[in-house]
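#struct-help
A.M.: can someone run this one for me? Single chain, 272 residues.
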Amino acid sequence: MSNTRIAFIGAGNMAASLIGGLRAKGLDAAQIRASDPGVDTRTRVSGEHGIETFADNAQAIDGADVVVLAVKPQAMKAVCEALRPSLKPHQLVVSIAAGITCASMNKWLGEQPIVRCMPNTPALLRQGVSGLFATQQVSAGQRQQAEELLSAVGLALWLETEQQLDAVTAVSGSGPAYFFLLIEAMTAAGEKLGLPREIAAKLTLQTALGAAHMATSSDVDAAELRRRVTSPAGTTEAAIKSFQAGGFEALVEKALGAAAHRSAEMAEQLGQ
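D.P.: on it. Structure tokens below:
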């Protein structure tokens, strides 16, 4: 990325996180531009990261190697159609807008090399994970550019088919909310068992953090880690059996299936 020039269309939270990650990795401020309709947003991003900002999208992408579309899905069609006359055939388009397919973007932009990404909200803390899919027009060098871009805020994983992005949405895109729900439920249960709410919350949060760190640092999978902390006839086994008796695994599968189905449904609706 040392010589890559990047333009962000939209300078909201996710774009700002990517810009911050790129700057932290050593990318010069002069290589990054951003456009946004909001004066306050432009002022904040420019002030925090030292980059040039524009109100006009066409100005922002002039001379860029990579154009990152970081606008709301509902605005993508209008933004793409307005941007089309200014795009050059060699410019890589990276979309981080949920639910907008490559086919829809090709329809609105013309035949551009496109990488579609599904990041998640921990990317705001540079602890995210993103699924990436590239169209056939994307070169090996451009794949590397897209991977380094998303790696600035976490882990970047390539997918074989675009349809797999619906599963990525279900697993990691929406995933933080599932863990937040479990944290809510464990905190409430701890309170009902007699703990002060503040202590129940701290115990739950630190346990979640520690378990995640153990899982990411271990050379064995989560099932084995669970077995290692589940003593026969012990307290953990009693809780696990209660989860399983309630259909925990089947419920998780059903929930993620619903999220993936809704992702595909939204892509169809937004691509009209």
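A.M.: thanks! The chain has two domains: 6-162, 173-267.
D.P.: also worth noting: The domain at 6-162 is CATH 3.40.50.720 (Rossmann fold).
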